[in-house]
Every structure is written in structure tokens, then in C-alpha cells.
Specification:
0% strand, transmembrane helix, transport, antiport, single chain, mainly alpha
Length: 93
């Protein structure tokens, strides 16, 4: 019974990721695309968690942590790029 629920949730998360990919491609504005990319990161983390439960292993916990860190850094970098036009500011006197 639990395997059916886990497999169903993996399929639902995958479909959700495909829907969000459409929002990344056709987003009406740049901030909407950044939020969609962040949601893809969250969906990937949850999908890895579900796969970890399906395979009954804890080997993917580091992968989930790494994906979370990369999604956060990507969201911050895109947000800074939208706000200022550059990600890394270099002040030259």
C-alpha cells in the first residue's frame, strides 16, 4: 500500500515539474520565471526524498541538501540580477 502511494506521489511531483517548466518558458515576467525555477528546485528535492523512501536508503540525503543549497543560491543570484543587472559588483576606483 505504501509503495503505491510513494509511486503515485513521484508521478504527481514529476507532472508538477513539467507544468512548472512551462511557466519557466512562457512566464509573463522575469520574477515569475525565477519563482518557477525555485519551485523546480523544491520539486527535485521532494522527488529525491520520495525516491529515497522507495529505495529504502539514506544515501540520497546529501543530494537533497546539496540541491537545497544550489536552489537557494540560484534564486538569490537571479533575484540580484533582476534588481541590479549584475550578480557580482566590481568597484574600480
Amino acid at each position: 500500500m505504501i509503495n503505491i502511494l510513494l509511486n503515485t506521489s513521484a508521478v504527481i511531483i514529476s507532472v508538477s515539474t513539467l507544468i512548472v517548466l512551462y511557466r519557466v518558458a512562457k512566464g509573463p515576467s522575469m520574477p515569475d520565471r525565477v519563482i518557477a525555477l525555485d519551485m523546480i528546485g523544491v520539486n527535485l528535492i521532494s522527488l529525491v526524498g520520495v525516491v529515497s523512501l522507495i529505495l529504502e536508503t539514506t544515501a540520497f540525503l546529501e543530494v537533497m541538501l546539496l540541491l537545497g543549497i544550489l536552489a537557494f543560491i540560484g534564486t538569490v543570484a537571479f533575484s540580484k540580477f533582476i534588481e541590479k543587472g549584475v550578480v557580482i559588483e566590481r568597484k574600480r576606483d
